[in-house]
Amino acid sequence: MKAMRSNGEQGAGKTRPRRLLLCLDGVPHEVMETARERGLFDSFGPPSRLLSPFPTMTNVALSAMLGATSPLGYESLYFDKNARELRGGVSKYIGWRTPDKIPSSYMDELDYQEPLAFEFLVYVAPDKVWRTDMRRFHERFRDAPQTRDFFAFLKGTDGLLHIRGPERLAVALESLDKILREIQTTCGWETEIVLFSDHGMNLRENRRVHMKTHLRDRGFLPGSSFSERSRATVAIPAFGLCGYAAVYCGDEDAVADVANALVELEGVDFSVYKDGSEVVAVTGSNGVARIERKQTDAATSYRYLISEGDPLQLRPIVETMKQSGKLDAEGFASDEDWLEVTANHTYPDPLANLYTSLYTPRVRHTADVLVSLLDGYYYGWSPFARLTRLAATHGNALRPSSNAFLMSTHRVLPPYIRADNAQPLLRG
Ligand SMILES: [Zn+2]
Fold first, then answer.
1. CB under 8 Å, gap of 24 or more: what pairs does 419-422 form?
2. Lowest-confidence segment of 7-21, 125-139, 151-165, 213-227 by average pLDDT
3. How far is CA 387 from the centre of its chain?
4. C-alpha 69 – ligand 1 centre gap (Å)
5. d(Cα 248, Cα 7) in Å, to the nearest integer?
6. How far is the CA of 428 from the centre of ligand 1 (A)?
7. How far does the centroid of ligand 1 lie from the alpha carbon of residue 174, in Å?
8. Cα 254 to middle of ligand 1, angstroms
């Protein structure tokens, strides 16, 4: 079952202390900072901002952070581009923990994750679920061999934030702080605790975006499969209530039209789609721009070309980079320079982040159009929406969802880290 335990034997207890890796689903960097101001987790170094990739969803984030295989789609309900139909969903979700259905290889590395039923119960009884989740994790960790790393994923924090909001999460973090102090007393300096999250969240009430209705009004036909090549058919998997949407088009000629049709929909910030090779088109209510990448043997560079407005709010930054001589004659700057000047931007690290969302296999079935919603809006499956009001959500490319955190009891980590660069810090 645990044949793929990759790093544990090499490092743990030999070249470095044994590690407890503990991922708290959906806990934003700012929430961890607030908890520390209240005196919690004071044996840890300062929390780094761990930049969660767009769309800021668990499977996308954890597979990047652990250098694991790509999941099939952004969520368990996904569109299969070969079969040209929706696949997965609730029934698949229930069954996904048999080996052939594991959505990404990071799941092989988990020593603890909540029992299956919790994933749905969390929406109706979030308090009970996180308490049981934390207790079980603690029990499981106590019984684990001390010579190996232990990797646990606490999912209860995500549901708690979605349904109850930050005040109740604060209570849960107090309990976790107590558990971790106890672990430190028992295990001592021989065990390093690495606490991190997969993505952040906006902490505000969120309303539904009526994407299918809007597209229907514009002449498109949202459905669950593409029987024939048609300009009008689109599929938009609706599952969790999240701040992004993945649109698949029946005909590639319709991709730009779909993105343009979404500009006027309330709650849509912008859409991205591939426009030629090494180019991402960004189109939204704040304007139209292109992200272009140039790859040479020595380096990766990007430029941001505005054709109207400033959809990613980068104009002042481009100006500053120009003045400090960081742009070449064509307006390209190195990937490293862009990361440095935009790591704490409204859209963290936007050029590389949005580029890789479409041009690298974040998931196996990449969407034709990825839509980033404004904070305060979600798209998703309506039966979930009827269960409850949504006190917080994540999924878009804005800072609250993109800023996860990473901190250690033994190491001071860099102030910001791209998800794609986290693996050596977690497992190395
Ligand atoms: Zn969530």
1. 419/50, 419/51, 419/52, 419/53, 419/61, 419/64, 419/65, 420/53, 420/64, 420/356, 422/50, 422/64, 422/65, 422/66, 422/196
2. 7-21
3. 24
4. 21
5. 37
6. 28
7. 21
8. 30
- Average pLDDT on 266-286 reads 96
CA of 166 to the centre of ligand 1 (A): 13
Ligand 1 center–CA 86 separation, angstroms: 21
Ligand 1 center–CA 422 separation, angstroms: 21
How confident is the model at residue 423, as a pLDDT?
97
Decide if pLDDT at 101 tops 90.
Answer: no
CB 405 within 8 A of CB 24: no
- 387 pLDDT more than 90: no
- Contact predicate 69/102, CB 8 Å: no
Between the CA of 326 and the centroid of ligand 1 the distance, in Å, is 38
Q: 229-233, 280-284, 316-320, 372-376: lowest mean pLDDT where?
A: 229-233
Residue 307: enclosing H or E segment and its boundaries?
Answer: strand 300-309
What separation in Å is there between the alpha carbon of 30 and the centre of ligand 1? 16
Parallel, antiparallel, or unpaired: how do β-strands 377-378 and 207-208 relate? Answer: parallel
Does residue 399 surpass a pLDDT of 70? yes
Of 23-27, 63-67, 383-387, which range is least confident? 383-387
Reported as a pLDDT band with limits 50, 70 and 90, residue 3 is very low
Q: What is the pLDDT of residues 20-45, one digit of tens each?
A: 999 999 999 999 999 999 999 999 99
Cis check for the bond before 55: say yes or no (omega within 30 of 0).
yes
Distance (angstroms) between ligand 1 centre and the Cα of 162 equals 7
What does the pLDDT read at residue 230?
Answer: 77
Other CB atoms within 10 Å distance of the CB of residue 309: 15
Which pTM was predicted? Answer: 0.93
CA 273 / ligand 1 centre spacing (Å): 24
Q: Which CATH architecture has domain 8-69+104-204+394-427?
A: 3-Layer(aba) Sandwich (3.40)
Q: How far away, in angstroms, is 95 Cα from ligand 1 center?
A: 19
Domain ranges in the chain with CATH number 3.40.720.10:
8-69+104-204+394-427
The rounded Å distance from CA 220 to ligand 1 centre is 29
Q: Find the mean pLDDT for residues 343-359.
A: 98
Q: For the chain, how big is the Rg over CA atoms in Å?
A: 21
| Confidence at residue 389, expressed as pLDDT on a 0 to 100 scale | 80
Could you tell me the distance, in angstroms and rounded to a whole number, from the CA of residue 180 to the centre of ligand 1? 24
Which of helix, strand or coil describes residue 144? Answer: coil
Using the mean position of ligand 1's atoms as its centre, give its distance from the Cα of residue 373 in Å: 15
